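Q: Structure for this?
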Amino acid sequence: MLLAKSLQEIKPSYIREILSVANSPDIISLAGGLPDEATFPLTLMQKSLANLANMPSLFQYGNTAGYGPLLEYFRSCYQLPSSHDGIVCTGSQQGLDLIARAFINPNDKVVMEAPSYLGAIQVFGLAQANIESVAQQADGSDLKALEACFAKKDVVLFYAVPDFHNPTGVCWSLAVRQQVGRLCQQYDVTLIEDAPYRELRFKGEALPLASSFCPNHSLVLRSFSKIATPGIRLGLVTGRSDWIAPLNKVKQAADLHSSMPMQAVLLDLLQHDEFAHHLERLRHLYRARCEGLINSITQKLPSYCRVQAVEGGMFVWLLLPTCDVDALAKSALEHGVAVVPSSVFYQDSEAVIPALRLNFTNATIEALDDAIDRLAMVIKSHCAI
Amino acid sequence: MLLAKSLQEIKPSYIREILSVANSPDIISLAGGLPDEATFPLTLMQKSLANLANMPSLFQYGNTAGYGPLLEYFRSCYQLPSSHDGIVCTGSQQGLDLIARAFINPNDKVVMEAPSYLGAIQVFGLAQANIESVAQQADGSDLKALEACFAKKDVVLFYAVPDFHNPTGVCWSLAVRQQVGRLCQQYDVTLIEDAPYRELRFKGEALPLASSFCPNHSLVLRSFSKIATPGIRLGLVTGRSDWIAPLNKVKQAADLHSSMPMQAVLLDLLQHDEFAHHLERLRHLYRARCEGLINSITQKLPSYCRVQAVEGGMFVWLLLPTCDVDALAKSALEHGVAVVPSSVFYQDSEAVIPALRLNFTNATIEALDDAIDRLAMVIKSHCAI
């Protein structure tokens, strides 16, 4: 069989490929977007996991939208109005894929920030969307460029990660959130707000969801991979009921429903008395690692490397002078440190700004410091200024 | 947002809709394709489930193709040659969806048996395939019609359920399997062999997979919903490595990977000393229920209702004289018995043969007998001959 046309231009995920290489014990990996296994709240999940064997109904076919009690919990926890609904997905990645399949025709225009989450580039690529990019500034999307895009009147949706962006770590200011909400309403564009890192704020003040400024012009994607565990593959989409219903229809064909036992375990975890403490410990640990990494960078990398402080999430974005970032990342791997070059996060290769994405959640402060030592050598030889 | 064109013609699954109605205690449901919860091998899974809390690596992001040890087990269990691979899916439903997304362009020709599995009609409908139907006979597909279809030279794939077909229960003879294998090779058509009911044979002799007669012109879908449990959502696709690789690429975008803890539990179950006994008990129970249902039908329904004996699976197909099957099924529901009318299993409404799909796995022999009592009344009033 020949590949479908929609698949012919899709590259396999660089990150998924590098993760298998980066497993070697000689390599310090700052490449993945992995939470630290040692932080997984398995103690809080132990009782629920053991109790599953007494709950046969969880092992039967279930509702496509998700496990009823979990959906009820989400409705109350996220204060969904009666005109809104939720659908549990096999990871928020599936939520995004369902949205693209339900609402995007080939050549439909989709706006993304540049750089952007690789998994989103893949999804909209598979949907054969016409992707338009808007640059990111320190406080969020370039609003002038965004409005110019929207004003062309043929944009279906705007995909964004306002909290601790992947890969840059940028967090939208309140003003940007309000303006994006206003623009989405004014130009009738749907904001797809992807919020996997929202609960990982370890500094500064929490800001409202951007979608809260355009509740009927938005869908929100949430992930439980960062605050619970990734392996259970559970995410959530919420928004207008008339937009959630089509996602249900696609999900019937896509996988009928997501794992019911895992949904029941997640509900118990989210409701566990100790869950808030677990999140506190997680934020505390990630803050220390992030600060450690930024200290190492400041001390050990040439001053032409620039890094912006972040207030949460899992990544910092290391800006470099003009260089071949792919060759640099390859060389770094040979020197025992895995990083992701900026090139993989751009739809349009001409827009690539030389940078590296560095993950700080899955290595100790000591390992992060060693990684920067290794990286320093490589950067100096690749970016001779 | 407007619905994508591909979704506009897709009806929500009648079966998923009726399942929510058929939950009422007053209704005996023969509508679902549900295994009996009471048979779930939770005792055999108990230790694995409880032990998950000690295995943090299972809760991390994992490989898209599946949990390594489970893939190894499948390779050995299904004797995959070195040129073939497997990919674990979120139910075999996802496997089918990945195949359609990887290999079908809009208007590509796909051949299916008529009637056919509703979930497959949905998947190929979403892929905007041009579906051509071939009638089913007592021993499998109508080979003359199939060859005539293939001879037109533009068929990409042939989707079939050779073992205990859903909805008809038909099991392909050895000769049909051999001939289909030969035709697929001769006309370069890929056989998508969906085998969810294969292990549920309770009579007669096991036959080789149809795909074994065209191993490089086929992909095999397996489900663990019927022999393990549906709620864990795990299935498998196997076939040529160069056809499994594109499925991996689509799955990266679709959900990254399927639940790792559930994959580990499934592996333990499949390797459990008592698993073979579990399957024996399941087959014994389903055989008794199937025989009970056919006895009730023979004794209580008018002689113009015809039912064919089955040797396994979950369904019998009750052929009726010309009547409005949708009205009949609706009336049956009002009289306390849920069944699925044949109309939902046909892509082409003009080809519909009046019949009902009756599931025998999720009700006791007594309940099945009561259901036929109720159905007798309804049939007599709808099929006045």
